## 1
Amino acid sequence: MATTTRSTTIVRPPGRGPSTATNLDRMALLRATEIFGGLEDRDLATLAAYSRVRRMRKGEVIYRKGDRDASMVVVLAGLVKISVPSALEREVVLNVIHDGEVFGEIALIDGRPRSADATAMTGGDLLVLDRRVVLPFLRANADVAIVCWRRCAGGSGAQASRSRTCVSSTPPAAWPRR
């Protein structure tokens, strides 16, 4: 079902409508991300309404390399390790994602299999945006999609330059903040 308001088309999945109880908090989190930071409030409100909160336990695998899960995730609380196995049967830690940071944004846009593992280093909460929900919204709102694509493309290089890389069989429990 689609409705149009102030030149923005809102695409609602069947049986789902905006959740206003936590929409402002979710909007603030999305506004703080590189990919959605430049959007207007009404667009952020729509995306926030389609997000869901997921609890994670320490050591829980959020996704594995090769998984087809195409969601973008904002860490609400906790630490998430992004890693890949090495030829030496050790783990290469590509990045540690902290509160308020995003991972999985490329899969949200391109829909390809995951290129690394994501594992909870601590317990916490995640804000998840699924591709199947976000993509129809972006298709219906080309101007919003262009902003997101540009920010994502620009953010990828910045994210890579900020990443902390090490080879370790057991990474530190917490990494220093930037």
## 2
Amino acid sequence: MSSENWFYAADGTQQGPVGFYQLRTLAQEGTIKPDTLIWREGMENWVKAETVDGVLDEAPASDASPGPIPSNPYAAPSATQITAAVETDFELIPKNLPEPPVKLDLGFCLSQGWKLMKANFVSLFLFGLVYLIILILVSALFQALYEPLGIETVPDPNNPFTPTVISGFGQAFLLEFLSTLIEIFLGLGSARYLLNLISGEDFELSDLFSQGDKVFKTLLATILYFIAVSIGLIFLVVPGIIVAIRLGHYQTVIVERNLGPVEALRFSWQLTRHNVGALLVLGLAAIGIGLVGALALVVGLIPALIVVYCAFTIAYKFLQLGPEKMAALAERTGRA
């Protein structure tokens, strides 16, 4: 329903076309009331908005009688109007963020993440498998280098996966640094892959290895990010959570816009304004989805993680493009 083209009556005239998400926004703003007449292609007659599921969710109640209906209200809109309903030549990477800020639609992000997972499961699974294998091999290689490099460790009773280094601190730090660079490199490649998938561009395994020129700027951005979050956590925890959410898209920003560390963090801060609560709920939903997937005999964890990663990248694009363009993009690419 999100990609359908709707018309509504206002002040005796026919308004539109608009997409379904914009129709809901108009209802929330009070422009469309329960007794406002609405219509879309395929409907025999105009109907009251209150009779169409989803239009009036959280919309204010009607406080006035409906205005006069448009002349010949049952006439179908022209083909030109319908074609104009969804803009198809919009910029996938807009120069400016929308004003006022877009309200994140969690249902859209999660449902589109689910559809992307179903439509591209094999490709996404293989991509994730390669990603995981590389990380495992790198970790095994570096562990094998401990003894030749003179690094000694003892088991940590509190963390069985990470032993405590007791000698060879410099060598251990170097290996940890290299491991971090590799993780950043693969993370950037993953972001590029998902952005291509969502935007309807070619997405290939080679995307995983395509972002090497952005590793060091991302490293610096990551350091700044953790400093900012740590300072926020010192002040009663909540500010740290807010900072983590507001700045959390910096890596994807670097991949898509090739900004510097400070600029990427600033862009993420602006992008997420007025949506901290929604992004927090999305994060909690992601945790819930992951737990449900893990409980489903572990097998369900794989598609659950794919849905989560897709949903977060969709949210990133949604905050830039808005509901109408995202719905049009999903329709145009046929990938969601």
## 3
Amino acid sequence: MQKRIARRIMAWILSVCMIAGMVDLSGFTVRAEDDRIITTVEFKDSSIVYTYNGGEIKPGTDDDNVIVRDFEGQEVPAENYNLIYENNTNASSGGVKARVTAAAKSGSGYMGSASAEFTIQPKNITDATDVTVTVDESISVTKPGEVRPIPTVQANGVNLVATRDYTYTYTNNNISATEDEKTATVTIHGTGNYTGEKSADFKIYRYDESKLRIVMSTTILEKGKPYIGDKITQQPIPAILTPGRDFQVFYGKEEIPIEDYYDASDTRDPLTDPNATTGVAHRNNHYAT
């Protein structure tokens, strides 16, 4: 109120002086009293932290955290301006921050615009329940050395991109010639729009092919079914062999469970169809043909 009175008094003094020829106002632009200027954009709560979420982040639209003021410091009603956003999707980096600009609407009685910057921080994947890391839980190898399964990382069900969104490292993933199995770990390291770490474990099984053998039943041998050594030949046999009844599969002295290599619902002949599951398969990744 005091500012308005002061402006009116000043306008009256200038008018008197102009009439008296004491002041030349020809170079001045006269602004209507009701045309107020937008001068500042503020955040109600500067402690609010905005975090990358894969979409646009819009303070003042998604929340009520933006205050727009005119040149007198008065709050400008939201219906008198539009909010415009820049750099408001990705996490802030390299000194580039997100920006919100309040621009006066035409015919609103306001003019001008003002902006404010805000920071979007990377999403921390460490405790994020919507970020998952999956990898083959068990892997079979025949030789010692490093095992490096490729992990799949998702956020809200969307696949993230390696090197852009994360990198990954392995721990304890080198199996030696004296080890039969071990547990290894792949760790995801967030980068770009992500930060923090998240891990997943997997099992490594090393087997010696020379220890894998098929033992035919006495009945099959008596019927003269063709086989060579411990391996069933690819020669046609009139009937599909039934595990347990016609043969057993061993790895060393340990018999391999039937469910690890045989699917009773598959009626294809494993001796003529390489896609048949009646054979030593890697369904559970412990063994391979």
## 4
Amino acid sequence: QFTLREKDSPHIQLGDHLLINFLEMPKLKLHKNLNSLEQWLLYFKKEGKENKIVEDIIIKDDLIDKVHQDYKKFMEDEKLRIQALSREMGYRDHLSRMNFAEKKGLENGLEKGLKKGLEKGLKQGIKKGMEKGMEKGIEQGVEKAKREDALKMKNHGLEIKLIHEISGLSEETIKDL
């Protein structure tokens, strides 16, 4: 079951019962006893074209006849047709401008978002790189200091095993100094 709701107030439901008919004009079949809905569909489908069945419908149904008379008046009044065409063209121009503006807005937003993201990513990358570089530099400095101290101890005649225990360097590394 589907319901229709007010866009700005979704808690408001349009009626308890609603019937939606999807009418496919190309599938409309012509037959002798058309119901009211089929008569309207046929009228809208064939209006402006000569058709015996439509002429019979217009004669038999007062409301369709009134609509047909208004349609004929409209079609005969060039000023009204031009106004309607102008209104339609204005509406289509409006839609076109709105679509263009939306597309431009999305492009600009994407461009700004990418730029901001790259800047933020670059800052974060530089910060992480600095942190890792400092860590590595400290590790290398500590390692260099251990080697220098181990070399001094070795030059003062301390045993390799004792230098190993004090410095934490491998005995092989100490021998290579």
